[in-house]
């Protein structure tokens, strides 16, 4: 499993945690950007963990490979260094790219393309696991050719699946829900005063703030929502972080929202904890308003009515698959213009709270089971690859 950024992003952790459970019995190695994070949270008992090589931390290696890449026009050289411990004689037969939205951002898209090419050139097979891809990106011929190299692609929502089909990529594509829909929650202690079913969970990220078109409008909408809940209902508010990376930390924006409520016993600011414990907290909420995809997946899969403040195809696609339409269930952050838009969307959701909860309760068992079924596709590939490797070793063995 590669292109994993570390469990400080609890969405990344949730994907790996769920994947490990659905692939039980297969030897699993996680090659990670942050071994320390993965051992700290929930992953150490589930798979072997290997720190990938960071070329930027080794001056002479960085210079050498930079020169090599420039002279020989070899973009894969950096990847061969980064993943040198799982190439050559240590090559695995099957590699899962587990960063579901790698193709949504320019820098990580380049990483994903070069890594896929590197592993394929080494003779391995690759899987693009639980992915979302913006449809316009599939007008890029390089991306289309890259998609064809994967032995299996499992888009996690129908917008991506349809875009792949329209780009002519069909034979290796199978639509399954995000693996994290199958994540098992782990009970954790809730703060005094937290009454299950009487709390609205709120998540915000620095990323959606960076994607707003009107400066300050996102935080203004969230503050209006908190004030509305405290003033017009008897419910409480739980501020729940889901990503704790230094460069992209939900706690920073949540702390801004919490400012002024420190002494209010109806507002709770939750600390960092594992993805399974965070899912338990979210599952105890009456409703959830979230920005992080896997925070909203934790809510959906717990049958909690959920409003997504989104910015990309993954938010729209998942809501469309669950409800038939993303309208009313997803607010694009780029579209926020008035300070009360989140309040109005939240009120619409709460007016239909039981209807939405019933809808989720009816579709979620089969939907989560379908997420687990994706593991059988990987298991089938693993068996094929293992059989092929075993046969090759037999053919290459010296005659006695």
Structural summary, described in words:
The protein has helices at 10-22, 35-40, 59-72, 76-82, 106-121, 141-149, 158-166, 206-210, 217-232, 250-258, 275-283, 293-301, 313-323, 341-351, 353-396, and strands spanning 29-32, 48-51, 94-97, 125-131, 152-155, 199-202, 236-239, 244-245, 248-249, 267-269, 287-290, 306-310, 330-332. The longest helix has 44 residues, at 353-396. Helix 3 (59-72) runs antiparallel to helix 4. 44% of the residues are buried. Strands 10-7-6-11-12-13 form a six-stranded parallel sheet, sandwiched between helices. The radius of gyration is 22 Å and the shape is globular. Strand 3, helix 5 (106-121) and strand 4 (125-131) form a beta-alpha-beta unit. The chain has two domains: 10-52 and 83-183 and 368-396, 3-Layer(aba) Sandwich (Rossmann fold), CATH 3.40.50; 199-351, Glycogen Phosphorylase B (Rossmann fold), CATH 3.40.50. By secondary structure, it is an alpha/beta fold. The chain starts with 9 loop residues before the first helix and ends with a helix.
Average pLDDT score: 92
Q: What is the name of the CATH architecture of the largest domain?
A: 3-Layer(aba) Sandwich
Strand content: 5-15%
**What fold name goes in the CATH topology slot of the largest domain?**
Rossmann fold
**Shape category:** globular
pLDDT < 50 runs, ≥5 residues: none
Q: Report how far apart the termini are.
A: 38 Å
> What is the level 1 CATH name of the largest domain?
Alpha Beta
Spatial arrangement of strands, main beta sheet: 10-7-6-11-12-13
Task: Give, in order, the helices and strands.
Answer: HEHEHHEHEHEHEHHEEEHEHEHEHEHH
């Amino acid at each position: 499993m590669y292109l994993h950024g570390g469990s400080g992003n609890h969405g990344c952790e949730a994907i790996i945690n769920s994947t490990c459970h659905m692939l039980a019995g297969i030897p699993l190695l996680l090659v990670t950007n942050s071994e320390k994070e993965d051992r700290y949270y929930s992953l150490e008992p589930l798979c072997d963990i290997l720190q990938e090589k960071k070329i930027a931390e080794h001056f002479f290696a960085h210079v050498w490979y930079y020169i090599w890449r420039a002279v020989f026009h070899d973009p894969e050289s950096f990847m061969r260094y980064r993943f040198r411990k799982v190439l050559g004689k240590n090559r695995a037969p099957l590699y899962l790219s587990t960063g579901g939205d790698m193709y949504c951002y320019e820098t990580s898209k380049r990483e994903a393309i070069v890594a896929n090419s590197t592993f394929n050139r080494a003779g391995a097979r690759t899987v693009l696991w639980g992915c979302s891809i913006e449809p316009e990106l599939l007008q890029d011929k390089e991306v289309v050719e890259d998609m064809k190299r994967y032995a299996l692609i499992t888009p996690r929502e129908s917008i991506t699946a349809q875009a792949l089909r329209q780009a002519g990529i069909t034979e290796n594509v199978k639509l399954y829900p995000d693996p994290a829909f199958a994540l098992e929650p782990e009970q954790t202690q809730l703060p005094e005063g937290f009454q299950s079913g009487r709390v609205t969970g709120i998540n915000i990220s620095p990323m959606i703030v960076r994607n707003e078109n009107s400066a300050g409008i996102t935080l203004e909408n969230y503050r209006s929502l908190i004030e509305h809940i405290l003033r017009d209902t008897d419910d409480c508010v739980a501020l729940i972080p889901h990503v704790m990376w230094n460069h992209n930390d939900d706690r920073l924006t949540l702390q801004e929202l919490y400012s002024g409520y420190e002494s209010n016993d109806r507002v709770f600011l939750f600390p960092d904890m594992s993805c399974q414990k965070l899912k338990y907290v979210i599952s105890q909420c009456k409703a959830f308003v979230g920005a992080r995809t896997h925070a909203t997946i934790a809510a959906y899969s717990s049958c909690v009515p959920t409003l997504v403040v989104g910015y990309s195809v993954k938010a729209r696609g998942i809501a469309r698959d669950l409800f038939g339409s993303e309208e009313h269930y997803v607010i694009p952050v780029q579209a926020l213009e008035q300070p009360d838009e989140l309040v109005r969307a939240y009120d619409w959701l709460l007016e239909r709270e039981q209807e939405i909860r019933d809808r989720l309760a009816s579709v979620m068992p089969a939907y989560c089971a379908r997420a687990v079924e994706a593991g059988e596709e990987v298991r089938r590939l693993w068996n094929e690859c293992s059989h092929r490797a075993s046969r090759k070793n037999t053919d290459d063995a010296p005659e006695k």
